[in-house]
């Protein structure tokens, strides 16, 4: 049974699903119809954060040019450049049992590629969501529909998986940022 979250809510993941080790996070979106002259290209990115809320090295930043972390416990699917069609546009596979111990939090974001030069923002994006699925049986465990309150943002941290007392939890974050992927990288300690 899917747990539907609202912004700011947190839920146990492994405590309520004993034995869960392999999950995937699906991220999806649609672009509104508009005539801006440029195609939309939204990208999923993942930041593997230590106890200080920063990446330990640039390899802890997972995106289309670095699709997996050093031990391959977190892997991003290919780059969907259109967001067309129903379902997940990009996915992140995670082997929870193999995530390095120094990774205390895994932050998932969606950014608009070249948003500033293309004059694009999340006000032109609809039906954004993040969902967490048990990879073994395909059961959707958690879903967070973002809504449309990110009108000037060019990047969104949609959710976070984090460790708490030896278990994994999920938080629906839904925080918008105006400085795109470069701003998120700076906030999380990635050298750009």
UniProtKB/TrEMBL annotation:
It holds the Pfam family TerD. Belongs to the CAPAB/TerDEXZ family. It comes from Paenibacillus durus ATCC 35681. CDD domains: TerD_like. Residues 1-188 form the TerD domain. It comes from the Bacteria. Signal peptide: none annotated. Transmembrane segments: none annotated. This is Chemical-damaging agent resistance protein C.
């Amino acid at each position: 049974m899917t747990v539907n979250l609202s912004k700011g809510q947190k839920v146990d993941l492994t405590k309520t699903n004993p034995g869960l080790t392999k999950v995937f996070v699906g991220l999806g979106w649609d672009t509104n119809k508009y005539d801006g002259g440029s195609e939309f290209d939204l990208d999923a990115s993942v930041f593997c954060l230590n106890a200080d809320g920063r990446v330990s090295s640039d390899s802890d930043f997972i995106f289309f040019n670095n699709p997996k972390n050093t031990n391959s416990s977190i892997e991003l699917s290919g780059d969907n450049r259109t967001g067309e069609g129903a379902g997940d546009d990009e996915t992140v596979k995670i082997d929870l049992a193999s995530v390095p111990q120094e990774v205390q939090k895994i932050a998932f974001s969606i950014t608009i590629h070249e948003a500033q030069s293309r004059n694009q923002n999340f006000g032109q994006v609809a039906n954004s969501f993040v969902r967490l699925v048990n990879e073994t049986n395909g059961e959707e465990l958690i879903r967070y529909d973002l809504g449309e309150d990110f009108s000037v943002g060019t990047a969104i941290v949609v959710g976070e998986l984090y460790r708490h007392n030896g278990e994994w939890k999920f938080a629906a974050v839904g925080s918008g940022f105006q400085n795109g992927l470069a701003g998120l990288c700076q906030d999380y300690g990635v050298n750009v």
